[in-house]
Amino acid sequence: MLNVPKTQLARFLAHAKNGLPYEACALLSGTLDGANATVQWIYLLTNMDQSPEHFSMDPKEQFAAIKDMRRHGWALLGNLHSHPSSPPRPSAEDKRLAFDPSLRYLILSLMDEEPVLRCFHIRGGHMEKEPITLLEDEKMGVVE
């Protein structure tokens, strides 16, 4: 199960809407407790591709995010990107580029009026959904 604070998701949603018509991307950091993970911070990154169909994260921003995660004692939980006009499921390219089976791959679809978020584990090109719980901030130790 992946636990995501509503304020963190709202930050990414704003990032994704501001980046339209292109895909937006981010890294997820937080804590692990067995099969459960809790997001502490979503690092909003630049999509270097400036494309509505794929993304490439800025390497300098990635390194800065990893450095900050280490400083806070957080783990890299996965990545998050938007699909401006397609459903929240991994594309063939998403599956091909999912190198680490331990990470979570989240997709936020903006194709409908109400955004839809899905979480997947991708192993060997096969995807498996993981449930997401949205948390109120008072239940979180979110560091801003």
UniProtKB/TrEMBL annotation:
Keyword check for Zinc: yes
Cross-referenced SMART domains: JAB_MPN
Pfam family, one: Prok-JAB
Keyword line: Hydrolase, Metal-binding, Metalloprotease, Protease, Zinc
A biological process term (GO) from this entry: proteolysis
PROSITE patterns associated with the record: MPN
Domain MPN residue range list: 2-126
Gene Ontology molecular-function annotations: metalloexopeptidase activity; zinc ion binding
Stored PANTHER family: CYSO-CYSTEINE PEPTIDASE
Protein name: Mov34/MPN/PAD-1 family protein
